[in-house]
Amino acid sequence: MATPITQPLTKRSQVVSEKRMTLMERIYLPAIIKGMGITLKHFFRLRKATVKYPEQLRPMSPVYRGMHVLKRDEQGRERCTACGLCAVACPAEAITMVAAERRKGEEKLYREEKYAAVYEINMLRCIFCGDCEDACPKEAIFLTDRLVPTDYTRGTFVYGKQWLVEPLDPALRVDVSKRQPKAVAEFKKDRNFAHNR
Amino acid sequence: MIPTVIFLVALLLVTLGVAAYATYAERKVAAFMQDRIGPDRAGPFGLLQPIADGVKMIMKEDFMPASANRWLFFLGPAIAMTTALLTGVVIPWGGTLDLGGTAFRLQVADPDIGILYVFAMVSIGVYGIMLGGWASNNKYALYGAIRAASQMVSYELAMGMSIVALVILTGSLSLNDIVEQQRAGLWNIVYQPLGFLLFVICAFAECNRAPFDLPECETELVGGYHTEYSSMKLGFYLFAEYVNMFISSAVISTLYFGGYDVPFLDGLGLPQNVTVVLGTVALFLKITFFIFLFMWVRWTLPRFRYDQLMDLGWKSLIPLAILNVLLTGVGYYLKNGI
């Protein structure tokens, strides 16, 4: 048998009774003045709860799951091979892709023989769970701490490769190292994953 | 004649300007009391917010329900706004200026029955709300209007009673006389603390301000009497509330806090015009404080339930007001005889 709780859950809990109000309580004014004191205290409090969003950002978790990125490898080749595992893993069915075969002369663009000619994520369907990232065998897709910007029409939220693939310029590459804790990075050095490096 | 016209126009502009910035102040005060920042996008510190709001109101579609009574629907906001603006003319905004030899009082009109005029205008203001609610042909609007009307009628009684006590004391209904008497002696708040409290509570109810904002009680009546209003007609209703607040604060300051009187200023021997200007500044500081009080109370207290409102008005405030009249009468008799 569970022991009954004897101590109050918070320090602020009060015993409620149906006793009649005293005269001081019935004339309201003391209570009103007390309440006005509280609001006045807040009026002069300098610490405000507001975050002026576009200029000011709330501190984000280093592993925040925001807008996706399709990574390139060190030589600037797209890692994605359009295997479709991310689309299968996606619980919201937000990912679609069309695969294509790499032609001769495109070896500098695509890492392997097959690549995604079209890769689209519907950002309105996406629940940012990160399952696509887990499913990806090629370390191609990652969620980042960037936010999906707002817009007025639904169509604009279907993000194609032009928004998802990271820029070629090494300086503009998207850093996803934060999404990989040390243990994971260690684990990925295993011989069995050599094909991904 | 010409100074009077200039003064009248200036008064109109100042009233509208103060009311416009009262809307801004309201949002800022509300924000600060809730640990927020408030409007800060339009201009530095959001100071252009009232203009942005005004432009927004004008640009909105002016919609009139098909079943509404066209004329009354139009008349409602017009009456609300007009009566709110008309009250300012009897309030003494300052002493007598010396304009190169000619004396000029900073008061548009000084009727012998100044207080009654204020009351008359406030009472007509109920028609603006009543007509608007009735003409909308919407049950929520009608409920709001009926509540407003009954609330205002109830609280006007207690308000009138607290004024009766003040009139016993001063022996005059002219606002100017009342201020001059306070300049000579002590402020009326000293003699009439209970009357002041009753007057302020009733002024809150008359302005339909929280905790007495039942006419527009969003949770149960959508928007109250202005549910069906949109565009600048709605703007007029909302704006009239702030004008009323400004005028009420001016009346409270005039009746109980010495109007444009600054204690001990006359003894300093400053030039007359400087004294007058300082007096007007003092009046506006007092008004600012009371406008802040209006907002302070609004963002502190929850709204009354309707039956509680009526109970408070009829069972507490009116008996107290009568008691106040009685005590004042006895006190006056003991001091001065009949």
Describe this structure in words.
The complex is a heterodimer of chains A (197) and B (338). Chain A has 197 residues and is of the alpha+beta class. Chain A is built from six helices and five strands; from the N terminus they run H-H-E-H-E-E-H-E-E-H-H. Chain A is elongated and about 95 Å long. Chain B has one domain. Chain B has twelve helices and two strands; from the N terminus they run H-H-H-E-E-H-H-H-H-H-H-H-H-H. Chain B has a two-stranded antiparallel sheet with strand order 1-2. The longest helix of chain B has 32 residues. The termini of chain B are far apart. The chains are: A alpha+beta (197), B mainly alpha (338). Chains A and B meet through helix 2 of A and helix 1 of B.
Name the helix and strand elements of chain A from N-terminus to C-terminus, one letter apiece.
HHEHEEHEEHH
Largest inter-chain interface? A-B, 14 and 14 residues
Structural class call of chain A reads: alpha+beta
User: How much β-strand is present in the residues of chain A?
Assistant: 5-15%
Poorly predicted tracts of residues of chain B: none
CA-atom Rg of chain A in angstroms? 28 Å
| Strand count of chain B | 2
Which spans of chain A of ≥5 residues are poorly predicted at pLDDT below 50? Answer: none
Which helices and strands, and how do they pair?
The complex is a heterodimer of chains A (197) and B (338).
Chain A: H1 23-26, H2 29-43, E1 68-70, H3 85-89, E2 95-101, E3 114-122, H4 131-135, E4 141-143, E5 158-159, H5 161-164, H6 182-188
Chain B: H1 2-33, H2 49-59, H3 70-86, E1 96-99, E2 102-105, H4 114-135, H5 139-170, H6 175-184, H7 188-191, H8 193-206, H9 218-221, H10 231-256, H11 272-298, H12 306-336
Helix pairs in contact in B: 1-10, 1-11, 2-10, 3-4, 3-10, 4-5, 5-8, 5-12, 8-10, 10-11
